[in-house]
Design goal:
Length: 131
């Protein structure tokens, strides 16, 4: 059990709630557009990122222990099934993780939460691979 959980605080509370998660998601998708290092990841998302931004924001709120915006709208996330139509290999996984890591650093997600999230993101992103 980590320090935040032993003090009764969820990741949602530690990160700063919806405003910080929203800033994190916005930065994550902005970086995809700005950084050539994430070009394959960006290409996998199609031309419009509006829905992707909303869905990731809603998902992360609930996943971190806050309001269940995603499940209220769409039901169980079924992450692997929802991502199966997209080519997700090691390169896409690594670009997603690097982009999210950069976004977390830039919005100043506190340690040790950033490390804990990065570990969880790796496990999920690796599980999503279909190539």
């Amino acid at each position: 059990m980590n320090d935040e959980e032993t003090q009764g605080e969820s990741a949602f509370a530690v990160i700063g709630g919806e405003p910080v998660i929203h800033a994190l998601v916005e930065r994550f998708y902005d970086l995809m557009d700005l950084e050539p290092a994430y070009k394959e990841l960006r290409a996998a998302h199609g031309s419009d990122l509006v829905q992707a931004r909303e869905k990731l924001n809603w998902f992360l709120c609930g996943w971190m222990g806050g309001p269940q915006h995603y499940t209220e709208r769409f039901g169980h996330p079924r992450l692997r099934a929802r991502h199966m139509p997209f080519k997700i290999g090691i390169q896409e996984r690594d670009q997603w993780l690097a982009c999210m890591g950069q976004a977390m650093a830039e919005v100043q997600v506190p340690e040790p939460l950033r490390t804990r999230l990065q570990e969880s993101f790796f496990q999920t992103a690796d599980w999503m691979r279909n190539l």
